[in-house]
Amino acid sequence: MNMLFFQSEETLHEWLASREAERGAVLSIPQLWELSQRWYHNRMALEYHGRTVEQVQEIFKELGLTSAFWQAM
Amino acid sequence: MDENKLWDIRAFVYQHFADMARPPLVDEIASQFALTHEEAASAYEELHQRHALYLRPGTHDILMANPFSGVETPFRVRANGKTYFANCAWDSLGIPATLHADAEIGAACAQSGDPIRLSVTDQQVQNSDALVHFLIPFREWYNDLTFT
């Protein structure tokens, strides 16, 4: 489980240092909400059968998530 | 199994989560869709294979149907008069997005343990100084879903 909340950049830094982990991607709460809406708005629909990698990439692109972290390859 | 019935079962699982804040058991699927226990279990396995939901290893119990968790987690979401559990920070906002409902989210800073409370009203999130960190890059998300 590693999509986690942090109260500040400082606590994130401490968490990464304690695990000798590299920083991944950081989103603000408004950014995460935008992603959540785009990702989940139709999840209850009978017609929702999942997404292709290309469709996921399109969502990330629309939200400005274009760094290598968000790329499929 | 017929494709349409399989997706009907997927939709039923999600509606059941929304209504009851827990996933349906295999026998509830069997009863709802006039299937044998084995047929219903097979449908869950097929949906698991297609990443439409995730079973607890070695069982036919639903562990996750994102954004919903079938087990208690540190990501608690209060919406529509019910308490749901989300799989991760992202999914905690995913629940009000899925339900199109107002929500109060209770979680904690992964480092300090201090409470983090978020609020969604009329499909707007109240701003917060909290951050969300994604450790694993997208290309690796499906290697080990319970970790991601």
* Percent range of helical residues of chain A: 40-55%
> Roughly how many Å is the radius of gyration of chain A?
15 Å
Structural class of chain A: mainly alpha
Helix content of chain B: 25-40%
Main sheet characteristics of chain A: none
Any guess at the CATH architecture of the largest domain in chain B? Orthogonal Bundle
The strand count of chain B comes to 9
Shape of chain A: elongated
Strand content of chain B: 15-25%
CATH topology of the largest domain in chain B: Arc Repressor Mutant, subunit A
SS field, number of helical segments of chain B: 4
Note the total helix count of chain A. Answer: 3
* Number of extended strands of chain A: 2
The CATH class of the largest domain in chain B, by name, is Mainly Alpha
State the order of secondary-structure elements of chain A, H for helix, E for strand.
Answer: EHEHH
Largest interface (CB < 8 Å): A-B, 45 and 53 residues
Features:
heterodimer; B: about 150 residues; Arc Repressor Mutant, subunit A; Bactericidal permeability-increasing protein, domain 1; 5-stranded antiparallel beta sheet; 3-stranded antiparallel beta sheet
Topology:
The complex is a heterodimer of chains A (73) and B (148).
Chain A: E1 3-6, H1 9-19, E2 25-28, H2 29-40, H3 53-62
Chain B: H1 3-20, H2 26-33, H3 37-49, E1 54-55, E2 62-65, E3 68-69, E4 76-79, E5 82-85, H4 89-99, E6 103-108, E7 115-121, E8 124-125, E9 131-134
Antiparallel strand pairs in B: 1-2, 2-3, 4-5, 4-6, 6-7, 7-8
Structure description:
The complex is a heterodimer of chains A (73) and B (148). Helices cover 45% and strands 11% of the residues of chain A. Chain A is mainly alpha-helical and 73 residues long. Chain A has a domain at 28-73. Chain B has 148 residues and is an alpha+beta fold. Chain B contains four helices and nine strands. Chain B has helices spanning 3-20, 26-33, 37-49, 89-99, and strands at 54-55, 62-65, 68-69, 76-79, 82-85, 103-108, 115-121, 124-125, 131-134. Chain B has a five-stranded antiparallel sheet, covered by helices on one side. In chain B, strand 6 (103-108) and strand 7 (115-121) form a beta hairpin.
